[in-house]
Amino acid sequence: MRNTLLYLKSNASTFNTDINYNRWLLTNPIQARKDELLTIQVIEAEFPITYYNVDATNNVFECVIITDDVDDGATNEDHTETYTLTLESRNYTAAQLAATIDAITDKTHSTLNCAYDKKTGKMTLTATSTTAEPSDSSTKITIGANSTCNRLIGFSVGQTKTQPNTGNTALPMEGNNIVDMNRTNNIYIETDLMLDSRDTDGNRSGILAKVQQNKKFLEVCHYQTGHNLPLELDRKDTYIDHIDLRILDDNNIPIDFNGDNNYSITLLFSYIKKDKLMLGQEVEGVETLPIIDNINTGDSCDEYSDNDI
């Protein structure tokens, strides 16, 4: 079996911002012979863990607090105040992230505080009403619809807590989940070539490999496959003069390695012989048997017995 190793470095590629793929142009294309098909396999890779756990994809915090003026006798909720914070892109610990949210500017009728408990691994948001009217009560706290950092801080989408407006000034709400400060647990290497791999929904995808991310920030994640599991390319993909790859996180979002921090990938292309017989395909190199043509024109087949033909 013939093989070709292709060593790729990210700084030798061109990034397409429209499709989020890196493209490598191959001076010497990979080409199968007429009687061959191609398989592909990632055999090793190195990724610098230079991406942030907070970036433009998950940096919005939004919380809505409703307070009621307990002195005015009205039954409706009097004041709705929305706290919005755009987090700076960087690498945070849970304590640092809680402190950043805790420093958010107070509103007229409420304040918002955030604390992280390392014993439970959870954050708590506490809404406290002020005396602006002069006596308000906190009645409801909700994670806003525009919040994108929910997985990081451990709160569910739209998580809400309410209490009667009986003069309670403080309303704490603990996250439903433990904080998750990992940007991703895996790094996916995906190609635009047609493969027979499947994603988590069972859809056909171009995923070549799933690399377990087990390194800390600023370390290097090394991957070497322990299995010989080549993926067969589509029958039309027998001439390859470029490679398109993109690097994704667990949420299918492209990973930004922050500048010229290079990753490298080694691909193994193997050339395999085509099957002799393939349904719906003409078999190359097999002589076609001639059609029996010794029946005279005008004669019908049923005039001949099996022995006559």
Walk me through the structure.
The protein is mainly beta and 309 residues long. It has two domains: 2-51 and 183-273, Jelly Rolls; 60-174, no CATH class. 4% of the residues lie in helices and 41% in strands. It contains two helices and 19 strands. It has helices at residues 94-102, 150-153; strands at 2-9, 14-16, 21-31, 36-48, 60-69, 79-86, 110-117, 122-129, 136-143, 160-162, 170-174, 186-191, 197-198, 204-205, 207-212, 220-224, 231-232, 239-248, 264-273. The strands form five sheets. Strands 1, 4, 16, 17 and 19 form a five-stranded antiparallel β-sheet that branches. β13 and β14 form a beta hairpin. It is elongated, with a radius of gyration of 31 Å. Mean pLDDT is 86; it is low at 282-309.
What keyword list fits this structure?
elongated, five-stranded antiparallel beta sheet, 2 domains, single chain, 4% helix, disordered C terminus, Jelly Rolls, mainly beta, 309 residues, 19 strands
Oligomer: single chain
For the record, the count of structural domains works out to: 2
Our estimate of the beta-strand percent is 35-45%
Q: How large is the count of helical segments?
A: 2
Q: Summarize the biggest pleated sheet.
A: 5 strands, antiparallel
What percentage of residues falls in helices of 4 or more residues?
under 10%
Number of DSSP strand runs: 19
The span between the termini is: 47 Å
- Please identify the structural class as seen in this structure: mainly beta
The pLDDT mean sits at 86
Task: Name the overall outline.
Answer: elongated
The arrangement of helices and strands along the chain is EEEEEEHEEEHEEEEEEEEEE
What's the CATH class label of the largest domain? Mainly Beta
* CATH topology tier name of the largest domain: Jelly Rolls
Uncertain stretches of 5 or more adjacent residues: 282-309
Rg from Cα: 31 Å
Q: What's the CATH architecture of the largest domain? A: Sandwich
